[in-house]
Structures are given as C-alpha cells and as structure tokens.
Amino acid sequence: MVFIGMLQQMPDGLADRCPARLTKNFRDKSDLFQMNCEPIHLRRFSAAFRAFERNKRHHHDLAAKKSGCRTRHFHLVRAPREAEIWLMTDGVAADFLPMLAAAESPVGSLVVSVHDVAPITRPSVEKILTDLKEAGVRVTSLLVVPDYHHRGKSVDDATFISWLRELEADGHEIVIHGYFHERPRRQSEGMREKFLTRAYTQNEAEFFDLKYDEAFTRITRARDEFRGVRLSAIGFVAPAWLLSAEGERAARDAEMQYTTRIATVIDLLTGEREPSRALVYSTRSAWRRAVSLSWNAALARRVAIGQLVRLSIHPSDIASGGVWKQIIRFARRFSRTRNPTTYRDWISKERVTRNLS
Ligand SMILES: [Zn+2]
C-alpha cells in the first residue's frame, strides 16, 4: 500500500529530476550580476528572486532580440549567497529581462487553489481562506463544483452564491471544477482505470474518460449556470486533474480559456503548456498523510526555483493537523517571496509576456 501511495504522489516522469526552467548551464557560483565589470544595484527585483543567470547563448545580441525572440534569456537559479544578487539597475534589468519588465512583476508567482468548493464544504473553505489570509495569501482560485455528488445545484443556494460573488469581488477567482465530481464505476475496468479512479481518487474522476459530447454538455451547462448568477469563470479543472484528451477539447470548445493538470497549466487559447507540479495532499488515511508530508517537503524545494508555484488545497486538509501546518508554512514562505495570484491573472500576464519577449 505504501508503494501505491508513493505512486500516487510521484511525478508523471519518474526520471524527470530537473527542476522547471533550470537550464544546462546552471552554476552554483554565479558572477553574472556585473555588466561590463560595473556592479550596479538592483532595486526593483527584490530578494524574492534569489538569483538570475544569463543564458550565454544569447548574450551577444540580447538587445536586438528583445522582440521576436521567444527564448527566455534568463532563468531563476538558486543563489549561494544573497549578497551576490543585487547588481543591476532597473534600466539594465529592463533591457536584459524583457519578460519581467513586460509583466511588471518582479518576482515569481504563487497560485493557491482551493478544490471542491460547494455549499457543503463552505465552512471548511471559510476557515481555509481565513488562515491563508493570515499567512499572506489574499487571493486564490476557487474550484467550485456545480452539483457536488448530486446533492443539488450550487447556483440554487443563494447565500452560497452571494458569498462567492463577494470573494470574486475581493480578487478570488471562480473556476469550474467538474460537474458532479463523481464517476460511476464501470463493469469492465482494467488495472489502470481501477487504480486511477478508485485508489488514486474515490470514484471522483468524473472527466477521466468522458466522451467529448458529454464533457462538452457538462462544461457548457456549468458555464451557463455560473454566468446566470453573474460568476465569470474562464477556467475548467477536472476532478483530480484527470481530464481526457476529448475533455480538454470540449473545454476549449466550451470557451474555457485554460485548464490545469497535476504537472501543467494549459492555456487553451494559445496552446502554451507551463510545466509546474502542484503541491497537493492525500489525507484519507494516516499512511497517505505521512507520504504526502515527506513528498511535498521534497517537492517544495524542487518547485521553489520555478516561475510558478502551485499549492492545491482540499477542504479535508484543514482537519489534519500536520498537513495543515505544512500547507500554512508553505503559504507563508512562498507568499513572502512571490506574488500570490490566481490562474486567471497568471495566464493573462503570461500572454502579455510571451507577446513582448
Ligand atoms: Zn476536486
């Protein structure tokens, strides 16, 4: 069983041990913050950045390539000592870090998402949002289930909807999260189907193998229901991130602008896929919690050097002490060094950045 738990928490490619965006020319000892041997102070890009590395392949004509070149010239790397970081003016930074200047964002991003938001989980979600706010995370992507386990439509609960509208007005994002968040068991299921739909999730992988027509029907129904109560969802996330290829196509055709999987954020308008492994916990049993804690402790170090950190929370997480402590510790740590944002805002900034780089 422990092995199954390990599998559950493992990345898609077990051999992929390279942190996101860490390039081959990664060096621990970097002297790259002196331009023409003139050290200059970097004010705008704060300590949060940890360090920059210049990609030598582009150094000869960075300025000329400010437009039209889609390669990112700088990458985040781990800084051996903070003292080595602050050696560039805003002007130079704008010349040499076009993507950052364009995005007007000096630091990496943190997206905290709260899954399975529904009338029945609202009390837990309220506590989660209060603790997150105290930890420095004031906006989240709220993954709302339109009809959680067939308990009734979320849009029919007026107080729940007005609560969501207030959260949206405060900067939170409303995201469509499945429709029923439930998948009936099938008679003839192979090992893979059984593992993913029963051991990995508790029969909740609603969009795991849904055909296009049904997926399209459910997503458009959710979209129209939300629009009907003035909630503006532009993202769709499948339960447990298990989304079939047909489901992804259906989401795009249903005017969803993005979706996410456990290791990627997918811009459905541009086709861009951002690799970023989500921190997520399994709390269904003691051994799953133990595996989750150690796996996420290691993963948090690995994702910390990427541009986007994703922290995914489920309502049950707040009830398990050790897990919740670690989540809040990560929220506090990452919100100090990154911009807490939503998928909606992150995606739109990425589009601007890509167009200008
Ligand atoms: Zn869910």
Describe this structure in words.
With 357 residues, the chain is of the alpha/beta class. It has 2 domains: 70 residues, no CATH class; 238 residues, Alpha-Beta Barrel (TIM Barrel). 36% of the residues lie in helices and 15% in strands. It has 11 helices and 14 strands. The strands form 3 sheets. Strands 5, 6, 7, 8, 9, 10, 11, 12, 13 and 14 form a 10-stranded mixed β-sheet that branches. Helix 1 runs parallel beside helix 9 and helix 7 packs parallel to helix 8. It is globular and about 45 Å long. It starts with a helix and ends with a helix. Zinc ion (ZN) binds next to strand 5.
Please give a quick description of this structure:
This protein has 357 residues and is α/β, with parallel strands linked by helices.
Number of strands: 14
Overall SS class? alpha/beta
On the 0 to 100 scale, the average pLDDT is 76
How many discrete domains? 2
User: Can you count the helices?
Assistant: 11
**CATH top level class name of the largest domain:** Alpha Beta
Q: What profile does the largest beta sheet have?
A: 10 strands, mixed
Low-confidence stretches: 1-106
CATH topology of the largest domain: TIM Barrel
Q: Any idea what the radius of gyration is?
A: 21 Å
Bound ions, cofactors and other small molecules, one mention each: zinc ion
Order of helices and strands: HEEEEHHEHEHEHHEHEEEEHEHEH
Ends distance = 47 Å
